[in-house]
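COURSE: Structural Biology Practicum
ASSIGNMENT: Worksheet 4, Part C
STUDENT ID: 0417
INSTRUCTIONS: Below are two proteins. For each, the amino acid sequence is given first, followed by its structure token string. Answer the questions at the end about the second protein only.

PROTEIN I
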Amino acid sequence: MSVESLTGHAVVGTRSLGSVERCTLDDGREVVAKRGDVAAEAAGLRWLAAADAVAVPEVLGADDGCLVTAAVPSGSASREAAEAFGRSLAALHAAGAPAFGAPPPGGPADAWIGGAPMRNDPVEGPWLDWYLADRVQPYLRSAVDRGALSASDASRIENASVDPGPAEPPARLHGDLWSGNVLWSDRAWVIDPTAHGGHRETDLAMLALFGLPHLETVLAAYDEAAPLADGWRDRVGLHQLFPLLVHATLFGGGYGDAALRAVT
């Protein structure tokens, strides 16, 4: 369907923003349209919004080939917004999920993280077992196939001794919370989720992966609202292993080496 069909309003202006379009409707509203396989993203946005915690663009309409959301106001990061973001992210995670690997309600099991396919199947059992089997192993194999990792380096990652920390319940994750998916106005907004049930430290590790304005302020506010388990900073590399392997699969380069360094 078209933006007009999904919103009930005519488009009077369009501006390309890479993989999405920013459209002006005839009632003056600014919206963002994304085309492609967007079912999982639409379900994820709704699931995150249902927690009434982080700021999420409203889903105005979605079908199998098009997602239309309200545009996020523009602005710049501030310490106050970062503090509020840390607290709201803690509240989002505390909203929980049915299981590790659980997709958003009504969403498909097949999703995407960047340009890589990602499967969400809920499982019983410890987080680390699910994480290694459903997140690390598939992309480890892909990274080797692409040539981003040697078979011997992949074996070193597989055999690395990792400490997952104390057991925690499944958290409601954004799932792809790198700095590019955090937009700032008078507050922080999150976009482009790969939402699922996972470990809350994964979202925090993603924020640190490529740098975020006022990151330490975000983390301090989060820790004050929902204290993190001792040693959480030592586990950042473990939680970054999955996105690094995704990047190694998609882009090659030094991401394979970075994945190896994360856990060895």
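PROTEIN II
(use this one for the questions)
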Amino acid sequence: MGSQPESATPQPAERRQLMQNDPFSQPAYTDSFYEAIGGHETFVKLIDVFYDGVAGDPLLRPMYPEQDLAPAKRRFLMFLEQYWGGPGTYSEERGHPRLRMRHMPFQVTPEAKDRWLFHMRAAVDSLDLSPLHEGTLWDYMERAALTMVNSPSVQQP
């Protein structure tokens, strides 16, 4: 076996396609988490319910500078879909997620994290997932929210 020349190395989208067509890349009985919970429609509902809460939240709404939340909704939808085994559109359009770096311009306090989790809890609950799927998704959301905290609590005088 020789090595392939660099020009023959499949690009990320091509690698995904090759793996999807390779019966040995995953056992046939295993769906991705994305597929197991309902795919695109489920993630759209999650994002819609979440951003309905964010839109009216005085602590979180200022962290979304666009007048219209649609661009933020689309980015988050693409990210979550890719993370959970759906389309790789996020990386194709935006590159590596770099979540902490992308959130650094905003003061993400423990209070902001709690508000984010409050709205995400409502969104996750709206999906009526199985206990295993709900627990898996919620565990990720809690851990992700905690890692975004980059500022101390705002002290009231």
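ANSWER KEY EXCERPT:
Q1: The mean pLDDT is 81.
Q2: The chain has eight helices and no strands.
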